[in-house]
Amino acid sequence: MASLLDKVSTLISANLHAMVDKALKANSLAVFDEYIRQAENNLDALEDAAATVGGNVKTLARKVEQYKADSTKQDADIDALLKQGKEDLAAAVQAKLNTTSKLLAQYQADYAKTQTEYQKLLDAKLKLEAKLTTIKQEREEMQALLDLAKSKERTVGAIRSLKDLDGVGDADIARITDSIRSRLDQADARAEIESSRLESQVDEALGKAELDTQLAERKKRLGLSS
């Protein structure tokens, strides 16, 4: 999963301005098409990984609940056996409880780790989907710009970057260029805001889950569980 997330992180952090300049210099949309191909392939991989890890989260959650129930029953059985004077049986059940408690602790740790991995996959999927949408929109703008440039021979060969377009003096090209610049700036700003928001949501969700677990265990010890 680490390798997949590294690839996705690279795609998410791709510099839109550099992509536009490269497309203009080559007079081709190949750089956009390659990005879209890689992004869509990695989105498929993310979905598969998220489905697998999400299934593991559900399985581990079920195991945790199972061992919690076993632990509670065994604890009650020990008290009942001691009250009946059956210390040998109580000792045997205590040994089982010790094993159950160890397994419960392990499953709880595995659940927390897997839940974190699952959230990372979902977070990466949302970010890559947003970046892919932006790239597809910019490809349309670039297509219009390249088509227009090809129709105006005096600009063909002079275009190497957005900066080079400043001196062309053509109203149509200037309009499209300004639109691209504006959209790129907005995309950068949205990416920063979205990244911050998603990280906060993940932290909040994981923090709340931990608090809920702690409070539930404390209520059970106090006999307040419903």
Describe the structure.
The protein is mainly alpha-helical and 226 residues long. It is 85% helix and 0% strand. It has one domain. The chain is rod-shaped.
Outline, from the CA principal axes?
Answer: rod-shaped
Span from first to last CA? 39 Å
Characterize the largest beta sheet: strand count, sense, and whether it forms a barrel: none
SSE string, helices as H and strands as E: HHHHH
Rg measurement, Å:
29 Å
Number of helical runs? 5
List the helices and strands and how they pair.
Elements: H1 2-12, H2 16-26, H3 30-83, H4 87-151, H5 171-221
Helix pairs in contact: 1-3, 1-4, 2-4, 3-4, 4-5
In short:
The chain has about 230 residues and is mainly α. About 85% of the residues lie in helices and about 0% in strands. It starts with a helix and ends in a 5-residue tail after the last helix.
Quick tags:
mainly alpha
